[in-house]
From TrEMBL:
UniProt-listed GO biological process terms: carnitine biosynthetic process
Stated name of the protein: trimethyllysine dioxygenase
Broadest EC class assigned to this enzyme: oxidoreductase
Lineage top rank: taxon: Eukaryota
Catalytic activity from the UniProt record: N(6),N(6),N(6)-trimethyl-L-lysine + 2-oxoglutarate + O2 = (3S)-3-hydroxy-N(6),N(6),N(6)-trimethyl-L-lysine + succinate + CO2
Organism: Mycena indigotica
Record EC number: 1.14.11.8
A family per Pfam: GBBH-like_N
Length: 445
């Protein structure tokens, strides 16, 4: 039998483990030789009945060898914590039933075994306990090392500039409202991919538009109300309620959690003109900034910006913490850009920076603004009754040109979590397989 050593495991540790722990016998040696042959192909495939990973236990970890070079090491405490048997994990609610802090710090399996269904671990306890971890789940969740090709790939985003005008993502009202939810899936997928989507053929009234908004999730009530139906009468103390031009901005920079989606629908525009809609892909502009002006990108990624909504005596909004958030926020795990917050009009006093930081900040927003307002970035469109637009407020900035006459606008905010949940659920449902039940091993749980 050939022995493969997991990197970091000394031969003595394996020897010790094979004395102290009942390890798989013939099946593992068969698997090891099968894997040795397969290793020349360089790309390991998921284990099959005759092709099981090699396992090896040390005092504090279990190592799983996917091929001669790729080993994943799992801490015993991690394995015990992630047991998904009915005693340790509620099979319906998908909630942990283990009190993790009660797991003994030096816990070690009494037996580890490679089986067709996964890694079988027996734990010493007064009441014997077995945990079974599917191989694909272990590979997907390998953390030492990460195995990128085993992860569920993130859904693709398409960054766009002004040329998006040639192929604007659109669904019809009929599609979005259809009971089988396929059109709804297309709609939320478009929002994810492009950061916005038009809905055509919407009856030009608030009732239909509200029903459309509710297809995605709960409407988020704010100081502007729940579902808005407004004109330029300054009914609320915000420039949205005027006839002024509005530069590209995201909404709610003064909230701790700005709304996820914004849907708006122009119901009528009479006795005047103007009021084109402006959309700019903040992720596209950020990608250009990062490439051409990395220093400015870093400043916008690291400088918190205070903001406020104070146009009405009854409300005074500031984010928590009050220092605010940077213009560009990133996923702390992947480092990917996750959110753009930008509304120069709502920015509060900048009194928290050193003189040098202050100079760098003004220089950085000058470049940012130049890229945001370039002809290559701006997508202008004249919307009319019947076409609603929905915007991912964490990515796409919106604005409008000044107008004359009377405009009646309606729309709503939808929470980011509601939208992401709807997308995830519809992805599950339309994943290709007949989807009837969420597994305790579903990705991300
Ligand atoms: Fe706005
Ligand atoms: Zn368990």
């Amino acid at each position: 039998m050939r022995k493969f050593l997991a990197p970091g495991l000394r031969p003595s540790m394996v020897a010790a483990s094979s004395r102290g722990i009942t390890t798989p016998s013939s099946r593992v040696s068969q698997a090891a030789s099968a894997i040795a042959v397969k290793a020349t192909t360089q790309s390991p495939s998921p284990p099959t009945n005759t092709d099981l990973p090699t396992i090896s236990a040390s005092p504090d970890k279990v190592a799983v060898g996917w091929d001669t070079r790729t080993w994943s090491r799992f801490h015993n405490i991690w394995l015990r914590d992630h047991c998904r048997c009915p005693q340790c994990f509620h099979q319906i609610t998908k909630q942990r039933l283990v009190n993790t802090s009660e797991i003994p710090p030096g816990i070690s399996p009494s037996k580890v075994e490679a089986t067709e269904n996964g890694l079988l671990v027996s734990w010493p306890s007064s009441q014997p306990h077995e945990s079974l971890y599917p191989w694909s789940w272990l590979r997907q969740n390998s953390y030492d090392p990460q195995i990128p090709d085993a992860k569920v790939p993130p859904r693709e985003k398409i960054l766009w500039g002004s040329k998006i005008m040639n192929s604007v993502p659109t669904v019809t009202f009929e599609e979005a409202m259809a009971e089988d939810d396929r059109g709804l899936h297309k709609w939320v997928s478009n929002i994810h991919r492009f950061g916005f989507c038009f809905v055509s053929g919407v009856p030009p009234n608030p009732e239909a538009t509200e029903k459309l908004s509710q297809r995605i999730g709960f409407i988020r009530e704010t100081q502007y109300g729940k579902f808005w139906d407004f004109t330029s009468d300054l009914a609320k103390g915000d420039t949205a309620y005027t006839m002024l031009a509005l530069g590209a901005h995201t909404d709610n920079t003064y909230f701790t959690d700005p709304c996820g989606l914004q849907l708006f629908h122009l119901l009528s525009h009479t006795e005047g003109s103007g009021g084109s809609t402006l959309l700019v892909d903040g992720f596209y502009v950020a990608s250009i900034l990062k490439e051409l002006h990395p220093d400015a990108y870093n400043v916008l990624s690291s400088t918190p910006v205070p903001a406020h909504a104070a146009g009405e005596l009854s409300a005074l909004y500031r984010p928590s913490p009050p220092g605010g958030y940077p213009v560009l926020s990133h996923d702390p795990v992947t480092g990917d850009l996750s959110q753009v917050r930008w509304n120069n009009d709502d920015r509060s006093v900048m009194n928290h920076l050193s003189p040098q930081q202050l100079e760098d900040w003004y220089a950085a927003i000058r470049v940012w603004h130049k890229l945001l307002t370039s002809a290559d970035s701006e997508y202008w469109v004249q919307l009319g009754p019947g076409t609603a637009v929905i915007v991912d407020n964490h990515r796409v900035l919106h604005g409008r040109s000044a107008f004359t006459g009377k405009r009646r606008m309606c729309g709503a905010y939808i929470g980011v979590d509601e939208y992401r949940s709807k997308l995830a659920v519809l992805d599950e449902r339309f994943s290709g397989k007949a989807f009837t039940e969420r597994s305790v091993w579903s990705p991300g749980l």
